[in-house]
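Hey, quick one: can you model this chain's 3D structure?
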Amino acid sequence: GGTLLPRPGLFRSLIAFVGFVLLVCTFLLVTLLATYNHNDPSWNHAIDAMPTNLLGTSGANLADLLVQIFGAAALLLPVVALDWSVRLLAGRWLGRFWLRVLLSPAILVAASLALAIVPPPMRWPQHIGFGGVIGSIARHFADPFGAAAPVSAMAAAVLAGLILLYVSGFVADY
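Sure thing. Here's the predicted structure for all 174 residues.
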């Protein structure tokens, strides 16, 4: 995992405060994704109705955006945020944090590609599929290379898992 923060006092308190703020944001993110309803009014679904999302119009808009872009892979966002917040609250720091932040979108893209071949159930709210728009686009670009859909999906899933291990801090920096 991470290393203990070397300086006690104000810096450690500041890191714990950032961890607490991130934890609150994580719970808000879980709430907006858990109460996502594709029939809610959003940026691309203009209707005169009250949103059912517990976070109101803003929650409905953000949930719709995340699900449309990343599909079910959007559920990885709160997983990473929860891990980071707990580590910061525990006084642990993640080395090369800037690199972990920069690699986070790669998890979503790889997971979206992996999920793009999974046939969604009838109740899935998006016609684009489990991988969202990003998964659909990534799958389209993988096809000309002759990679069979299951092979490219497995490779993307392995890549997403390895990046997730690093971004979460389960792989030490050397």
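One thing worth noting: The radius of gyration is 18 Å.
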